[in-house]
Amino acid sequence: QLGEAASRLDCNAYVVGGFVRDLFLYRSNEDIDIVIEGNGIEFARTFARESGARIHTHEKFGTAVIIFPDGFKIDVASARMEYYQFPASLPVVEMSSIKMDMFRRDFTINTLAIQLNPGNFGRLIDFFSSQKDIKDKVLRVLHNMSFVEDPTRVFRALRFEQRFGFTIGKLTSSLIDNAVKMNFFKRLAGKRVYAELKLILKEENPAPTILRLLDYDLLRVIHPDLIIETDFKTLLDTAKKVTDWHDLLFIDETYERWAVHFMTLIRHCGLKATREICTHLTIAPRYAKMFGENRLSTEKQLSLLERRKRMTHADVYNLLKGFKTEMILYMMVCTTSRMAKKRISHYHTQLRNVTITISGKDLLKMDIKPGPIYSKILQAVLEAKLNGVLRTREDEFNFARE
Ligand code: ATP
Both ends of the chain: CA-CA distance in Å? Predict the structure, then answer.
Protein backbone atom coordinates (compact mmCIF):
# COMPACT_ATOMS: atom_id res chain seq x y z
CA GLN A 1 0.00 0.00 0.00
CA LEU A 2 2.84 2.36 0.84
CA GLY A 3 4.48 1.63 -2.50
CA GLU A 4 1.22 2.06 -4.39
CA ALA A 5 0.59 5.42 -2.77
CA ALA A 6 4.16 6.52 -3.62
CA SER A 7 3.80 5.44 -7.24
CA ARG A 8 0.53 7.35 -7.53
CA LEU A 9 2.42 10.46 -6.37
CA ASP A 10 5.14 9.63 -8.86
CA CYS A 11 7.89 9.01 -6.33
CA ASN A 12 9.93 6.09 -5.04
CA ALA A 13 9.42 4.66 -1.57
CA TYR A 14 11.95 2.58 0.36
CA VAL A 15 11.97 0.93 3.73
CA VAL A 16 15.42 1.64 5.17
CA GLY A 17 17.76 1.51 8.15
CA GLY A 18 17.47 -0.61 11.26
CA PHE A 19 14.39 -2.48 10.09
CA VAL A 20 16.15 -3.84 7.00
CA ARG A 21 19.40 -4.47 8.90
CA ASP A 22 17.48 -6.50 11.46
CA LEU A 23 15.77 -8.55 8.73
CA PHE A 24 19.24 -9.71 7.74
CA LEU A 25 20.18 -10.36 11.35
CA TYR A 26 16.97 -12.33 12.02
CA ARG A 27 16.07 -9.87 14.75
CA SER A 28 12.62 -8.42 15.25
CA ASN A 29 12.23 -4.67 14.77
CA GLU A 30 8.98 -2.76 14.76
CA ASP A 31 10.41 0.66 13.91
CA ILE A 32 9.61 1.24 10.29
CA ASP A 33 11.50 4.03 8.56
CA ILE A 34 10.43 4.99 5.06
CA VAL A 35 12.43 7.22 2.74
CA ILE A 36 10.61 8.88 -0.12
CA GLU A 37 12.52 10.12 -3.11
CA GLY A 38 10.46 13.26 -3.37
CA ASN A 39 8.26 15.06 -0.88
CA GLY A 40 7.90 12.78 2.13
CA ILE A 41 5.44 15.04 3.90
CA GLU A 42 3.08 15.18 0.94
CA PHE A 43 3.35 11.39 0.68
CA ALA A 44 2.62 10.92 4.40
CA ARG A 45 -0.36 13.28 4.21
CA THR A 46 -1.86 11.45 1.24
CA PHE A 47 -1.21 8.02 2.67
CA ALA A 48 -2.65 8.96 6.06
CA ARG A 49 -5.80 10.42 4.48
CA GLU A 50 -6.38 7.26 2.47
CA SER A 51 -5.76 4.87 5.35
CA GLY A 52 -7.53 6.71 8.17
CA ALA A 53 -4.30 7.56 10.03
CA ARG A 54 -3.07 10.89 11.39
CA ILE A 55 0.29 12.54 10.90
CA HIS A 56 2.79 14.72 12.73
CA THR A 57 5.07 16.70 10.50
CA HIS A 58 8.41 18.49 10.85
CA GLU A 59 8.36 20.76 7.83
CA LYS A 60 11.91 21.96 8.54
CA PHE A 61 13.35 18.46 8.21
CA GLY A 62 10.92 17.19 5.57
CA THR A 63 9.88 14.37 7.90
CA ALA A 64 6.57 13.04 9.14
CA VAL A 65 5.22 10.34 11.41
CA ILE A 66 2.14 8.42 10.30
CA ILE A 67 0.15 7.32 13.33
CA PHE A 68 -2.45 4.59 12.84
CA PRO A 69 -5.58 4.34 15.03
CA ASP A 70 -4.07 1.38 16.94
CA GLY A 71 -0.99 3.48 17.79
CA PHE A 72 1.36 1.88 15.25
CA LYS A 73 3.75 4.43 13.76
CA ILE A 74 5.74 4.77 10.57
CA ASP A 75 8.48 7.39 10.18
CA VAL A 76 8.74 9.04 6.81
CA ALA A 77 11.69 11.10 5.57
CA SER A 78 12.35 12.91 2.31
CA ALA A 79 15.43 12.20 0.24
CA ARG A 80 16.09 15.26 -1.83
CA MET A 81 19.39 16.34 -3.32
CA GLU A 82 19.21 19.93 -2.14
CA TYR A 83 19.19 18.91 1.51
CA TYR A 84 22.73 17.64 1.62
CA GLN A 85 25.74 19.57 2.63
CA PHE A 86 28.98 17.70 3.09
CA PRO A 87 32.21 18.93 4.59
CA ALA A 88 34.33 20.50 1.90
CA SER A 89 36.92 17.75 2.10
CA LEU A 90 34.54 15.08 0.86
CA PRO A 91 34.60 14.18 -2.79
CA VAL A 92 31.78 15.57 -4.89
CA VAL A 93 30.07 12.64 -6.52
CA GLU A 94 26.92 12.24 -8.51
CA MET A 95 24.41 10.31 -6.49
CA SER A 96 20.73 9.50 -6.64
CA SER A 97 18.68 10.86 -3.76
CA ILE A 98 18.41 7.48 -2.05
CA LYS A 99 22.13 6.88 -2.41
CA MET A 100 22.84 10.30 -0.89
CA ASP A 101 20.47 9.51 1.93
CA MET A 102 22.24 6.25 2.65
CA PHE A 103 25.66 7.93 2.40
CA ARG A 104 24.70 10.29 5.24
CA ARG A 105 24.12 7.40 7.60
CA ASP A 106 26.27 6.23 10.45
CA PHE A 107 27.43 2.74 9.47
CA THR A 108 27.34 0.58 6.38
CA ILE A 109 25.09 -1.93 8.16
CA ASN A 110 22.39 0.75 8.26
CA THR A 111 22.48 1.54 4.57
CA LEU A 112 20.25 -1.15 3.14
CA ALA A 113 17.00 -0.10 1.47
CA ILE A 114 14.14 -2.13 0.06
CA GLN A 115 12.02 -0.52 -2.59
CA LEU A 116 8.25 -0.65 -2.10
CA ASN A 117 6.85 0.57 -5.41
CA PRO A 118 4.84 -2.02 -7.35
CA GLY A 119 6.93 -3.28 -10.20
CA ASN A 120 10.10 -2.92 -8.15
CA PHE A 121 8.65 -4.22 -4.91
CA GLY A 122 11.26 -5.97 -2.78
CA ARG A 123 14.25 -4.70 -4.77
CA LEU A 124 17.18 -4.63 -2.35
CA ILE A 125 19.46 -1.64 -2.64
CA ASP A 126 22.95 -2.03 -1.24
CA PHE A 127 25.31 0.74 -2.34
CA PHE A 128 27.95 0.32 0.37
CA SER A 129 28.50 -3.43 0.85
CA SER A 130 26.13 -3.54 3.75
CA GLN A 131 25.20 -7.19 3.28
CA LYS A 132 28.85 -8.19 3.30
CA ASP A 133 29.52 -6.27 6.52
CA ILE A 134 26.46 -7.77 8.17
CA LYS A 135 27.65 -11.22 7.13
CA ASP A 136 31.18 -10.50 8.39
CA LYS A 137 29.83 -8.87 11.57
CA VAL A 138 31.79 -5.69 11.02
CA LEU A 139 30.89 -2.09 11.82
CA ARG A 140 32.26 0.46 9.41
CA VAL A 141 31.64 4.13 8.86
CA LEU A 142 30.99 5.33 5.33
CA HIS A 143 33.83 7.82 5.07
CA ASN A 144 36.82 9.14 7.02
CA MET A 145 35.04 12.32 8.09
CA SER A 146 32.18 10.49 9.73
CA PHE A 147 33.13 11.18 13.36
CA VAL A 148 34.14 14.74 12.55
CA GLU A 149 30.69 15.24 11.08
CA ASP A 150 28.99 13.69 14.09
CA PRO A 151 30.96 12.45 17.12
CA THR A 152 27.85 10.83 18.65
CA ARG A 153 28.45 8.06 16.13
CA VAL A 154 31.25 6.82 18.41
CA PHE A 155 28.65 6.07 21.08
CA ARG A 156 26.46 4.43 18.49
CA ALA A 157 29.36 2.30 17.24
CA LEU A 158 30.05 0.92 20.71
CA ARG A 159 26.35 0.30 21.30
CA PHE A 160 25.89 -1.65 18.05
CA GLU A 161 29.18 -3.48 18.58
CA GLN A 162 27.94 -4.83 21.90
CA ARG A 163 24.34 -5.38 20.90
CA PHE A 164 25.14 -7.42 17.83
CA GLY A 165 28.46 -8.88 18.97
CA PHE A 166 30.14 -7.23 15.95
CA THR A 167 33.69 -5.97 15.72
CA ILE A 168 34.59 -2.45 14.72
CA GLY A 169 36.49 -2.35 11.43
CA LYS A 170 40.19 -1.49 11.56
CA LEU A 171 39.92 1.90 9.88
CA THR A 172 36.77 2.79 11.83
CA SER A 173 38.51 1.81 15.03
CA SER A 174 41.47 4.08 14.32
CA LEU A 175 39.05 6.88 13.42
CA ILE A 176 37.48 6.40 16.86
CA ASP A 177 40.92 6.54 18.51
CA ASN A 178 41.55 9.71 16.61
CA ALA A 179 38.19 11.22 17.62
CA VAL A 180 39.05 10.50 21.26
CA LYS A 181 42.59 11.82 20.93
CA MET A 182 41.44 15.03 19.25
CA ASN A 183 38.49 15.28 21.62
CA PHE A 184 35.85 15.87 18.96
CA PHE A 185 33.36 15.59 21.82
CA LYS A 186 34.12 18.93 23.35
CA ARG A 187 31.88 20.73 20.89
CA LEU A 188 29.10 18.22 21.25
CA ALA A 189 25.92 19.53 22.86
CA GLY A 190 25.11 17.83 26.17
CA LYS A 191 21.61 17.16 24.89
CA ARG A 192 22.97 14.94 22.14
CA VAL A 193 25.26 13.07 24.51
CA TYR A 194 22.26 12.47 26.76
CA ALA A 195 20.17 11.15 23.85
CA GLU A 196 22.87 8.63 22.90
CA LEU A 197 23.58 7.72 26.51
CA LYS A 198 19.89 7.02 27.04
CA LEU A 199 19.88 4.72 24.01
CA ILE A 200 22.78 2.82 25.58
CA LEU A 201 21.03 2.62 28.94
CA LYS A 202 17.89 1.32 27.25
CA GLU A 203 19.74 -1.62 25.75
CA GLU A 204 18.87 -5.06 27.06
CA ASN A 205 22.24 -5.06 28.83
CA PRO A 206 23.90 -1.63 28.95
CA ALA A 207 26.90 -2.76 31.03
CA PRO A 208 29.23 -3.95 28.23
CA THR A 209 28.79 -0.73 26.23
CA ILE A 210 29.41 1.40 29.32
CA LEU A 211 32.58 -0.56 29.99
CA ARG A 212 33.66 0.08 26.40
CA LEU A 213 33.04 3.80 26.95
CA LEU A 214 35.28 3.50 29.98
CA ASP A 215 37.94 1.72 27.86
CA TYR A 216 37.98 4.70 25.54
CA ASP A 217 37.93 7.13 28.45
CA LEU A 218 34.67 8.49 27.08
CA LEU A 219 32.73 8.63 30.32
CA ARG A 220 34.41 11.97 30.88
CA VAL A 221 32.12 13.31 28.13
CA ILE A 222 29.31 12.92 30.68
CA HIS A 223 31.31 14.69 33.37
CA PRO A 224 35.05 15.35 33.51
CA ASP A 225 35.36 13.72 36.90
CA LEU A 226 32.67 11.09 36.86
CA ILE A 227 33.77 8.95 39.78
CA ILE A 228 34.63 5.40 38.80
CA GLU A 229 35.45 3.18 41.75
CA THR A 230 36.69 -0.39 41.76
CA ASP A 231 33.12 -1.67 42.19
CA PHE A 232 32.03 -0.12 38.86
CA LYS A 233 31.70 -3.32 36.85
CA THR A 234 30.06 -5.19 39.72
CA LEU A 235 27.54 -2.36 40.14
CA LEU A 236 26.65 -2.38 36.45
CA ASP A 237 26.22 -6.16 36.45
CA THR A 238 24.14 -5.99 39.62
CA ALA A 239 21.90 -3.34 38.04
CA LYS A 240 21.21 -5.74 35.18
CA LYS A 241 20.46 -8.60 37.59
CA VAL A 242 18.21 -6.49 39.80
CA THR A 243 16.21 -5.03 36.92
CA ASP A 244 15.88 -8.47 35.30
CA TRP A 245 14.64 -9.86 38.63
CA HIS A 246 12.07 -7.08 38.83
CA ASP A 247 10.92 -7.38 35.21
CA LEU A 248 10.41 -11.11 35.53
CA LEU A 249 8.27 -10.73 38.64
CA PHE A 250 6.30 -7.65 37.62
CA ILE A 251 5.80 -7.96 33.88
CA ASP A 252 2.99 -5.40 33.78
CA GLU A 253 4.58 -2.72 35.93
CA THR A 254 6.16 0.12 34.05
CA TYR A 255 9.09 2.13 35.37
CA GLU A 256 12.13 3.79 33.89
CA ARG A 257 14.58 0.94 33.72
CA TRP A 258 17.22 3.11 32.05
CA ALA A 259 17.06 5.51 35.01
CA VAL A 260 18.18 2.73 37.38
CA HIS A 261 21.20 2.18 35.14
CA PHE A 262 21.86 5.90 34.94
CA MET A 263 21.85 6.21 38.72
CA THR A 264 24.18 3.22 38.93
CA LEU A 265 26.54 4.99 36.54
CA ILE A 266 26.68 8.08 38.78
CA ARG A 267 26.59 6.03 41.98
CA HIS A 268 29.62 7.73 43.53
CA CYS A 269 28.80 11.28 42.45
CA GLY A 270 27.73 13.71 45.12
CA LEU A 271 25.04 16.37 44.77
CA LYS A 272 27.33 18.99 43.24
CA ALA A 273 28.69 16.73 40.50
CA THR A 274 25.21 15.28 39.85
CA ARG A 275 23.79 18.76 39.40
CA GLU A 276 26.59 19.63 37.00
CA ILE A 277 25.90 16.45 35.02
CA CYS A 278 22.18 17.23 34.86
CA THR A 279 22.83 20.78 33.71
CA HIS A 280 25.38 19.70 31.12
CA LEU A 281 23.16 16.96 29.71
CA THR A 282 20.05 19.22 29.98
CA ILE A 283 18.23 16.58 31.96
CA ALA A 284 14.58 17.51 32.67
CA PRO A 285 13.93 18.75 36.24
CA ARG A 286 11.84 15.69 37.13
CA TYR A 287 14.80 13.38 36.41
CA ALA A 288 17.37 15.82 37.77
CA LYS A 289 15.55 15.61 41.09
CA MET A 290 15.40 11.83 40.92
CA PHE A 291 19.11 11.52 40.11
CA GLY A 292 20.17 14.17 42.63
CA GLU A 293 18.22 14.78 45.84
CA ASN A 294 16.06 11.65 45.71
CA ARG A 295 18.94 9.33 44.92
CA LEU A 296 21.13 10.73 47.64
CA SER A 297 18.32 10.61 50.17
CA THR A 298 18.25 6.82 49.78
CA GLU A 299 21.72 6.65 51.39
CA LYS A 300 20.32 7.29 54.86
CA GLN A 301 17.55 4.73 54.49
CA LEU A 302 19.95 2.22 53.09
CA SER A 303 22.39 2.54 55.95
CA LEU A 304 19.55 1.98 58.44
CA LEU A 305 18.44 -1.11 56.54
CA GLU A 306 22.02 -2.36 56.56
CA ARG A 307 22.86 -1.60 60.18
CA ARG A 308 19.72 -2.07 62.26
CA LYS A 309 19.58 -5.65 63.47
CA ARG A 310 15.97 -5.59 64.62
CA MET A 311 13.36 -4.17 62.35
CA THR A 312 9.70 -5.06 62.14
CA HIS A 313 7.99 -5.29 58.77
CA ALA A 314 6.23 -2.05 59.62
CA ASP A 315 9.61 -0.37 60.26
CA VAL A 316 10.83 -1.49 56.83
CA TYR A 317 7.57 -0.33 55.27
CA ASN A 318 7.80 3.10 56.90
CA LEU A 319 11.38 3.51 55.74
CA LEU A 320 10.71 2.62 52.14
CA LYS A 321 7.19 3.84 51.46
CA GLY A 322 7.10 6.75 49.09
CA PHE A 323 10.16 5.60 47.14
CA LYS A 324 9.44 4.90 43.50
CA THR A 325 10.38 1.59 41.90
CA GLU A 326 13.49 3.16 40.34
CA MET A 327 14.80 4.10 43.80
CA ILE A 328 13.93 0.77 45.36
CA LEU A 329 15.85 -1.04 42.63
CA TYR A 330 18.73 1.43 42.90
CA MET A 331 18.99 0.67 46.62
CA MET A 332 19.11 -3.03 45.85
CA VAL A 333 21.93 -2.36 43.40
CA CYS A 334 23.93 -0.31 45.89
CA THR A 335 23.76 -2.48 48.95
CA THR A 336 26.17 -5.31 49.54
CA SER A 337 24.31 -6.37 52.68
CA ARG A 338 22.22 -9.49 52.22
CA MET A 339 19.97 -8.45 55.05
CA ALA A 340 19.21 -5.07 53.47
CA LYS A 341 18.63 -6.68 50.08
CA LYS A 342 16.19 -9.12 51.63
CA ARG A 343 14.34 -6.37 53.41
CA ILE A 344 14.03 -4.27 50.28
CA SER A 345 12.86 -7.16 48.14
CA HIS A 346 10.35 -8.18 50.82
CA TYR A 347 9.03 -4.64 50.85
CA HIS A 348 8.74 -4.53 47.07
CA THR A 349 7.19 -7.95 46.56
CA GLN A 350 4.83 -7.92 49.56
CA LEU A 351 4.74 -5.13 52.09
CA ARG A 352 4.05 -2.28 49.67
CA ASN A 353 0.80 -4.00 48.60
CA VAL A 354 -0.59 -4.45 52.09
CA THR A 355 -3.79 -2.47 52.63
CA ILE A 356 -6.37 -2.35 55.37
CA THR A 357 -10.09 -2.73 54.80
CA ILE A 358 -11.28 -0.49 57.59
CA SER A 359 -11.71 3.24 56.89
CA GLY A 360 -12.68 6.52 58.52
CA LYS A 361 -16.35 5.72 57.90
CA ASP A 362 -15.99 2.58 60.01
CA LEU A 363 -14.39 4.58 62.81
CA LEU A 364 -17.34 6.99 62.67
CA LYS A 365 -19.74 4.06 63.01
CA MET A 366 -17.77 3.03 66.12
CA ASP A 367 -18.63 6.43 67.59
CA ILE A 368 -15.00 7.55 67.61
CA LYS A 369 -14.91 11.34 67.44
CA PRO A 370 -13.38 12.51 64.10
CA GLY A 371 -10.03 14.28 64.26
CA PRO A 372 -6.30 13.65 63.87
CA ILE A 373 -6.78 10.51 65.93
CA TYR A 374 -8.31 8.86 62.83
CA SER A 375 -5.08 8.81 60.85
CA LYS A 376 -3.22 7.63 63.95
CA ILE A 377 -5.65 4.72 64.42
CA LEU A 378 -5.59 3.75 60.73
CA GLN A 379 -1.79 3.92 60.70
CA ALA A 380 -1.63 1.70 63.79
CA VAL A 381 -4.01 -0.80 62.16
CA LEU A 382 -1.85 -0.85 59.02
CA GLU A 383 1.33 -1.39 61.03
CA ALA A 384 -0.25 -4.21 62.99
CA LYS A 385 -1.37 -5.79 59.74
CA LEU A 386 2.11 -5.43 58.23
CA ASN A 387 3.52 -7.15 61.29
CA GLY A 388 1.15 -10.05 60.79
CA VAL A 389 -0.89 -9.38 63.93
CA LEU A 390 -4.20 -8.88 62.09
CA ARG A 391 -5.61 -11.42 59.68
CA THR A 392 -9.32 -10.69 59.21
CA ARG A 393 -11.46 -7.57 58.86
CA GLU A 394 -12.87 -8.36 62.27
CA ASP A 395 -9.31 -8.31 63.68
CA GLU A 396 -8.90 -4.81 62.23
CA PHE A 397 -12.12 -3.63 63.89
CA ASN A 398 -11.16 -5.07 67.26
CA PHE A 399 -7.68 -3.58 67.04
CA ALA A 400 -9.07 -0.13 66.12
CA ARG A 401 -11.55 -0.28 69.01
CA GLU A 402 -8.77 -0.99 71.51
P1 ATP B 1 17.80 0.92 16.90
O2 ATP B 1 17.63 -0.54 16.60
O3 ATP B 1 18.65 1.19 18.09
O4 ATP B 1 16.54 1.71 16.86
P5 ATP B 1 18.39 2.15 14.42
O6 ATP B 1 19.49 1.83 13.45
O7 ATP B 1 17.00 1.94 13.96
O8 ATP B 1 18.74 1.36 15.72
P9 ATP B 1 17.82 4.92 15.05
O10 ATP B 1 18.50 5.68 16.14
O11 ATP B 1 16.37 4.67 15.15
O12 ATP B 1 18.68 3.60 14.91
O13 ATP B 1 18.15 5.64 13.69
C14 ATP B 1 17.53 5.29 12.47
C15 ATP B 1 18.53 5.38 11.35
O16 ATP B 1 19.04 6.71 11.27
C17 ATP B 1 19.74 4.48 11.57
O18 ATP B 1 19.57 3.25 10.90
C19 ATP B 1 20.90 5.27 11.03
O20 ATP B 1 21.18 4.90 9.72
C21 ATP B 1 20.42 6.69 11.04
N22 ATP B 1 21.10 7.47 12.08
C23 ATP B 1 20.75 7.62 13.36
N24 ATP B 1 21.63 8.40 14.01
C25 ATP B 1 22.56 8.74 13.11
C26 ATP B 1 23.73 9.54 13.16
N27 ATP B 1 24.12 10.12 14.29
N28 ATP B 1 24.43 9.69 12.03
C29 ATP B 1 24.03 9.11 10.88
N30 ATP B 1 22.97 8.34 10.76
C31 ATP B 1 22.22 8.16 11.85
Answer: 72
